[in-house]
Specification:
- The protein is α/β, with parallel strands linked by helices.
- It has one domain: 5'-nuclease (Rossmann fold, 3-Layer(aba) Sandwich).
- Helix content is about 45%, strand content about 15%.
- α5 packs across α6.
- The longest helix has 13 residues.
Length: about 130
């Protein structure tokens, strides 16, 4: 299965945050799954870190290196992804999440997120249980 990790999922995975359920961690680490992180998520992390909304004890460079070493592949943003975001219904106003949703739909991936708004789109999601967030 091709998994696209939402921003909080990748942050919680690499920081070993207990808010990421063990069942989700196992799926990310399952070698039969291919895991991806959107460039939009990495961009969001950089912005949030710069304005003090995301504490990264080892800094953004170390986080990006950890992601690369973990085997999680970056998913580039293409023109087709950009066009797709303009066609999405406005269930979600966050531009980063809208990009991630578009990528997930176009690339036929399964989203890893506990964001309840994702279920309003025709995108397969694992872990969007509210009690986990």
């Amino acid at each position: 299965m091709d998994l696209l990790l939402d921003t909080h999922a990748i942050v919680w995975y690499i920081t070993e945050d207990s808010r990421l359920p063990m069942s989700i961690r196992r799926q990310i680490e399952d070698s039969t799954n291919k895991c991806y992180v959107s460039i939009a998520s990495l961009w969001e992390m950089g912005i949030k870190h710069a304005i003090g909304k995301l504490a990264l004890h080892e800094g953004l460079s170390a986080v990006l290196e950890t992601i690369e070493m973990s085997g999680i592949k970056p998913l580039p943003i293409g023109l087709d992804h950009i066009l797709s975001t303009s066609k999405l219904p406005l269930h979600h106003n966050d531009p980063f999440d809208r990009m991630i949703i578009s990528q997930c739909l176009l690339e036929q991936m399964t989203m890893v997120s506990c964001d309840k708004q994702f279920r309003h789109y025709n995108v397969p999601v694992i872990w969007n249980r509210l009690e986990d967030c």
